[in-house]
């Protein structure tokens, strides 16, 4: 063996390299280690912690056992069937009073139709053909026939009229939310009363016509176009412009209603090509003229106080 001398006088043995390698290999193969490997214990503890956290979920809540119960499934199925039957009953009764399926027809419009209809309401004198087109005993959609009634223009006309009325009140320092609400509600009430009066008149005269309540709402709502034109003209150019424009629009709506309702209320005589004769036909003609004459009255009544 090799010994090396140190400064203190003691000799130390110099180990060979191969012996160091042998000892290191023996230490590595030995089961005892200098430091205990805690990586496995750490992973085990972490997995245990996860199991503790997931324990309640893995075990399941009490509601899950209830959902898996056959009786609860049967009750849920019975409740869903009752809900579907109730929805069908509501839809059927609602369609009886408010035909929602038919309302789609009255809103089937496009930009071209709206432009032509507005021109017809303001300039009806040059229009020749007033008959509504049919396809297989069904009237075509308004976007394909300018003579077909619609609810888009009356609805937008009513909303625009309320806004223009608010603008007119604001320019006169008389605007208030209450007054604007009174203006809108009064216009709506007068419209409903007009339609109810026409329905009562048709019932008393016993007119066989294909006019519906929605048709009457549409025809009665077309007067808002002339009212808007009159109020806007009055705001821009004063009272003389209001009276002139309103007079023109009143004459236009009168001609429009006469030529439109004449084909509806006098359909039997028009189909046979006969003149309007007899007491019943005269009553129908008087009723047509009364409905047309009521439009200018309402137009003036609902707009004269907005121009000062």
Describe this structure in words.
This protein is mostly helical and 308 residues long. It is built from 14 helices and two strands; from the N terminus they run ββαααααααααααααα. A hairpin with a 5-residue loop joins strand 1 (3-5) and strand 2 (11-13). The termini are far apart.
Broad structural category: mainly alpha
Strand percentage: under 5%
Average pLDDT, to the nearest integer? 77
Helix-strand string: EEHHHHHHHHHHHHHH
Rg result:
44 Å
Main sheet makeup: 2 strands, antiparallel
The low-confidence parts are 1-35, 39-61, 271-276
Which percent bin holds the helix content? over 70%
Keywords: Endoplasmic reticulum, Golgi apparatus, Membrane, Protein transport, Transmembrane, Transmembrane helix, Transport
Membrane topology: Multi-pass membrane protein
Pfam families: YIF1 (PF03878)
Protein name: Protein YIF1
Quick overview of this protein structure:
The chain is an all-alpha fold and 308 residues long. The chain has helices at 17-29, 39-53, 55-59, 62-67, 70-97, 100-106, 111-122, 152-171, 177-205, 213-221, 223-237, 239-265, 267-272, 278-301, and strands at 3-5, 11-13.
What's the topology here?
Elements: E1 3-5, E2 11-13, H1 17-29, H2 39-53, H3 55-59, H4 62-67, H5 70-97, H6 100-106, H7 111-122, H8 152-171, H9 177-205, H10 213-221, H11 223-237, H12 239-265, H13 267-272, H14 278-301
Antiparallel strand pairs: 1-2
Helix pairs in contact: 8-9, 8-10, 8-11, 9-10, 9-14, 11-12, 11-14, 12-14
Family: Belongs to the YIF1 family.
Transmembrane segments: 151-170, 182-204, 216-236, 242-262, 283-302
Keywords: Endoplasmic reticulum, Golgi apparatus, Membrane, Protein transport, Transmembrane, Transmembrane helix, Transport
């Amino acid at each position: 063996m090799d010994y090396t001398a140190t400064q203190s006088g003691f000799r130390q043995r110099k180990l060979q390299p191969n012996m160091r390698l042998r000892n290191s290999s023996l230490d590595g193969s030995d089961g005892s280690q200098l430091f205990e490997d805690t990586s496995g214990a750490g992973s085990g503890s972490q997995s245990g912690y996860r199991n503790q956290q997931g324990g309640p979920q893995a075990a399941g809540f009490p509601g899950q056992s209830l959902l898996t119960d056959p009786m609860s499934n049967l009750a849920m199925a019975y409740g869903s069937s009752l809900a579907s039957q109730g929805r069908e009953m509501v839809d059927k009764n609602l369609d009886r009073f408010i035909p929602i399926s038919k309302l789609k027809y009255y809103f089937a419009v496009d930009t071209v139709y709206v432009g032509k209809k507005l021109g017809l309401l303001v300039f009806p004198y040059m229009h020749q053909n007033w008959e509504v087109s049919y396809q297989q005993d069904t009237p075509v959609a308004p976007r394909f026939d300018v003579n077909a009634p619609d609810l888009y223009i009356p609805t937008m006309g009513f909303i625009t009229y309320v806004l223009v009325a608010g603008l007119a009140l604001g320019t006169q320092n008389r605007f208030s939310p209450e007054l604007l609400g009174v203006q809108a509600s009064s216009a709506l009430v007068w419209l409903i009363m007009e339609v109810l009066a026409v329905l009562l008149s048709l019932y008393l005269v016993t007119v066989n016509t294909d006019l519906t309540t929605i048709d009457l709402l549409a025809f009665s709502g077309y007067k808002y176009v002339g009212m808007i034109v009159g109020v806007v003209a009055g705001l821009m150019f004063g009272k003389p412009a209001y009276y002139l424009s309103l007079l023109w629009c009143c004459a236009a709506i009168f001609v429009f209603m006469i030529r439109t309702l004449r084909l509806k209320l006098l359909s039997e005589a028009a189909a046979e090509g006969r003149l309007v004769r007899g007491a019943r036909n005269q009553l129908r003609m008087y009723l047509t003229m009364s409905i047309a004459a009521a439009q200018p009255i309402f137009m003036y009544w609902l707009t004269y106080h907005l121009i000062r």
